[in-house]
Specification:
mainly alpha; Nucleolus and neural progenitor protein-like N-terminal domain-containing protein; 5 helices; Nepro_N
């Protein structure tokens, strides 16, 4: 089971690096075409995807994933106890969110993004004109 978790962790890390590369390309495309396509519906969806990916980056997705895998693998038991204690606490005065809130926020953003992508696939899907 340990090797399966390592494989999953490596795959997720490569997906995150690919996401960052694709976000850089998307960001540049939006920057170049913002004035021309601002009011079009397809461009509005691109802006939503861009906003959601930016939120994922501010949530520091890599850090959340690495901490999750460390706890799941049991590599750092001291951190596991501290992490479980920090899950009990709410947000501190400094505005820094605890691990559980960050993890639930990342999961919510990912589900929103997948819903948006599947919804757009249904709309853009080719229709049979001859029926």
């Amino acid at each position: 089971m340990g090797s399966e978790m390592e494989v999953v962790e490596q795959r997720l890390n490569t997906f995150v690096s690919q996401l960052q590369t694709e976000f850089a390309i998307l960001d540049r495309l939006v920057y170049k075409n913002k004035n021309q396509h601002r009011r079009c519906s397809y461009f509005q969806y691109l802006l939503k995807v861009r906003r959601d990916v930016r939120l994922l980056q501010t949530a520091n997705l890599e850090e959340v994933m690495s901490a999750s895998f460390q706890v799941l693998n049991g590599k750092r038991p001291k951190q596991k106890v501290q992490l479980l204690e920090s899950l009990k606490r709410r947000r501190s005065n400094g505005g820094k969110y605890n691990f559980l809130e960050r993890l639930s926020g990342v999961a919510h953003l990912l589900s929103q993004g997948s819903n948006l992508v599947t919804w757009r696939k249904l709309i853009i899907a080719p229709r049979n004109v001859y029926q």
